[in-house]
Amino acid sequence: MAEVAAAGGAGPDVNTTGNPTEMAMAYLQDEKTDGDIPDINLGELNLTTDEFILDEVDIHIQANLEDDLVKEALKTGVDLRQYSKQVESELQRIEQASIKDYIKESQNIALLHNQITACDSILERMEGMLSGFQCDLSSISSEIQTLQQQSVSMNVRLKNRQAVRSHLSQLVDELVVPGAMISTILDSPVTEQGFLEQLHELNNKINFAKELSFRETLACSDIQDIVDRLKLKAVSKIREFILQKIYSFRKPMTNYQIPQNTLLKYRFFYQFLLANERTVAKEIRDEYVDTMSKIYYSYFKSYSGRLLKVQYEEVADKDDLMGIRSCRHPLHGEGQLTEERRHNIMLCFFSKPSLKSRNTIFTVGQRGAILSPAELEGPILVPHTAQRGDSRYPYETLFRSQHYALLDNGCREFLFLSDFFMVTGNSALDLFNSIMGKTLSMFLKSMSTYVSDCYDSIAVFLCIHIILRFRAITVKRTIPALDKYWEAVLELLWPRFELILEMNIHSIRNTDPQKLGVLDTRPHYITRRYAEFSSAIVSINQMFTNEKTHTLLGQLQVEVENFVLKMAAEFPSRRDQLIFLINNYDMMLSVLMERAADDSKEVEGFQQLLLARTQEFIEEILSPPFGGMIAFVKEAEALMEKGQLDRLKNDEARITQLIRGFSSSWKQSVEAMSQDVMRSFTNFKNGTSIIQGALTQLIQYYHGFHKVLNQPSFRSLAVRSELINLHHLMVEVKKHKPNF
């Protein structure tokens, strides 16, 4: 529409407000009457310019010739002048048609122009309105920012006022002393719950008043006087109550644990005193320490003294060592085996161990049960009850009862001190030692006296392991109060145990076999003592092993083995020597295996010694009846290995004598050998094993005898027919095996 207006404005005589059809016709008329041809800028197609380049013309001509329409025109032989006129007329026709369409739609175009003009005015008014809105919004935004700043300022003032209100409210509450607090502190007993609650409130007010006094708050002076008087009254009542409970401990036959439990319920009383009246708190603490120290000392001194009255009357002395001969020993007295000595032997082997007999101080017996959990933490002994029943106990039982009472009371006291007096670490340990130190010193002194004259090594060793187990209990309960005491006790017991063990080692080393009376192939009392003692120590030492103990036991074992060899050397015949060695090795091994582990060094050592001596003894008892055959078999087997068996060809008479001698006497020899073995060994099981081993060895030798006579060198001997069938011999030998 703007283009139409511009076109209409090109002619000076055209009336822009007239009919649109007339305006269009006037434009066409002007165009027809205008004969001037405007200058046309042909650009690169202007052939009249000086800048024309023929090469470029050729390129354009070549490009136009490649056009499809040009090719078609050239191909059909069209006249280009005629074709140009045709195109021009066609363009004029199209132009006339376009003008008509334009004229036809002129009214609509004019209407569209008017509408666009109206829209422009409306948009202009809307732009003004939006500009006004933008100005209004900018003013509103500034007002919102102002309101936001005012809101933040009001919020800060509100929080400040609330904070001030809370502080002032707390201040007013703490400054006010309610009448209920005054009446309760003054009139109520300290054991009532209300007194305890008001005491907490009073403590808070005292602390608050101290804080205000540091800040120099004037309002503090208004309540300071009444708070101080209430504090003095509360301190007085609390002091009287706690001292009364402490004094109640001193009454005879009083179970002090009950007042202690009562004090624990009111542990805040001491906390209040410690915070507000340290002098009174120290007085109460000192009074408690003094009272409990005397109570524990008196109780344990009396209890220990009464325990000693139920100890075995006869205890081990310096002569009760393994290598020192006991004149009352039933097995090694001089003279004939009388009926009385037989009775003593039976008592020695089958009676229960008792420290009333000196010969049993090397046997643990039932004494080791003291280390079982049921016995270790069982009820303590009641001395007067034991006295009425005429009961007597070994030292380790009294030791266990005494120290379990100490353990129980010590752990309880340490927990009470930590809880009631609010102490920890070294402070708690110092407070505990101030109470129990005198009692512990008495224990150590008494134990030192006992240990210095003690020769019962099993009792000392049991006491050591009792302490080790009690120490483990305190560690489990996380009570370090008795740790130093346990160490002090062990420092007393270990050296004494090692000394007694070394004394026993020296006693065995210095024993003279020629001064021990009549020789006897049965187990010696020294080896029995060693076996019982060693098995006891090994069994006790299993849980808390000690290398020093193992070393000393190893030295003791070496001395015992040397002693057995020295005693065996006193026998004139090798047979009696072997019987003595086997009996003693077997006895020691049997006793050790009852208590010690099968893989212990002691058990393994004696097993090897017993096996070697048993094999030698079997050869020894087979030699008298079958020595000729055995010697022939060994000689023949040696020659067979060298390929020189023909050297025995000329021994036909010897072979004949061996075959006929064996056939005629082997049954009687086996029977006599069996009886002799069973008489020689005190352990029937061991004797049976030796007989079986001897018969097995005999069959092996006879089998070797058969094997030698089956060689080509001896097959022609007529006496071979008199050989006993090997299978028949095995059947007959089985009949002679003893059954026990």
UniProtKB/TrEMBL annotation:
| Gene Ontology terms for molecular function | syntaxin binding
Supply the name of the protein: Vacuolar protein sorting-associated protein 52 homolog
- The regions listed as transmembrane in this protein's record are none
Q: Where in the cell is it found?
A: Golgi apparatus, trans-Golgi network
Describe the location of the Vps52 C-terminal domain by residue ranges.
290-618
Q: Which organism is it from?
A: Dissostichus eleginoides
Under the heading Pfam families, the entry gives: Vps52_C, Vps52_CC
Record domain Vps52 coiled-coil: where: 101-273
Annotated spans, Disordered: 1-20
**Protein family:** Belongs to the VPS52 family.
Tell me the keywords, alphabetical order. Answer: Golgi apparatus, Protein transport, Transport
Where does it sit, as one GO cellular component term?
GARP complex
Q: Name the lineage.
A: Eukaryota, Metazoa, Chordata, Craniata, Vertebrata
Biological processes, Gene Ontology terms = endocytic recycling; Golgi to vacuole transport; lysosomal transport; protein transport; retrograde transport, endosome to Golgi
Q: Does the keyword Aminoacyl-tRNA synthetase apply?
A: no
InterPro entries in alphabetical order: Vps52, Vps52_C, Vps52_CC
